[in-house]
Amino acid sequence: MKNLSGIALVLTAAMAIPTLVGCSVGHGKYTQEHISLAKEKMSFLKSATEWDLARQAFLAGDLDKALTKVDGSIAINDTVVKSHVLRGRILIEMGDLGNAIRSLQTAETLSPEDSDTHYYLGVVYERLNRPEEALTHFENACEFDDYNPGYAVAAAEMMIDLDRTEQAARYLRMLPMSANNAGIQQTLGHIALIEKDPKQAELHFRDARLLAPDDTGILEQLIHTQMVNGRFGDAERNISALIQNYEHKDRRDLKLLHAKALVGTGRPVEARSIYQDLLSQDNGKSDIDAWLGLGNTSYSINDDRTARRAAARIVGMQPNSHEGYVLWSMIHRRSGDFDKALTAINDAIDRNNSDAELFAFRAVLQRDLGMYQGALSSATRAGSLDPSNEEFQNFIARLKAQVVASVPTK
User: Fold this and answer.
1) Which residues contact 243 (CB under 8 A, 6 or more apart)?
2) H or E element that contains 321
3) Structural domains in the chain plus CATH codes
């Protein structure tokens, strides 16, 4: 038994040798799979690192470095969709639209429902002036991610470019995020302006403003629609708030708009102060809008001396424009010099014969001079240019009566 035990030990050791030898020259199936997974994981990590460096360089504007890094990421692992998308974005910025399409199409092949892929394909086709294809991809991007407002707005803007504003409005209103997204409400405001509905546009810009109170671009659009709609008080308050922002406090365009809003609220003296301040600045003496504002506000508060100076300056700066002559005409009429007033308004009409108010004012001057037939002719011209103006129609009726009354009886 003792010898058998020894033999058993020898056999056990002998049978163990092949296993030990095998371990020394190779790996078992489980160990091999573990190593492969580790290598694959390392590949993904290296690829992700290169992608992140590419993205950082792209955001920093270093496109050459970004392209090198993203190519390195793809070389390590070419199955990652976002790498091909980033490569496409880089190439778009570099102006290489052909290769950008190829990169994005590769991404689409890897993941047909990736929303970013479709969005940037839309961007490429838009730049290539292929609007229908661009619209298809923008709509696809929104379909695959209908809570991303950027995709929806891009699709709607492409519809607008294709003169499908009604379709764009319906498309945006059907989205689940429509009522609660500032960008969509802003775009609906733009569509309303295109459709010549400034009141509806104001409502959309107001909602967009409530949803994004820090977006000054939306606030400016709201202000402009309020001015168009004659809501000068609301516009003036919003402009005042905007000018309080340090970034906007020195903007001449906002100051001019502020002055116009003040005039609309019956505060011409304050408006005139703004115009005077703008003209007193070194770069303001040639600002025609400021001179026009100064002339009109000065006239409205009976400061004819300043109004005359402004009128002379406006005519001198823009002799082919009608505004300066209109101001001269008003000044002459108030001073009782109707002949000069008529000459000035005729000069204005020579430069702009499509403004109904100019013909109406000439009719007033001709009536003042007892030229009733001429006044009727001018008023009729004003009425034809603006047939919906009831004041013009009433004026025409009164002039007809005056013409009849002025005919001597036999």
Assistant:
1) 249, 251, 254, 255, 258
2) none
3) 42-145 (1.25.40.10), 354-410 (no CATH)
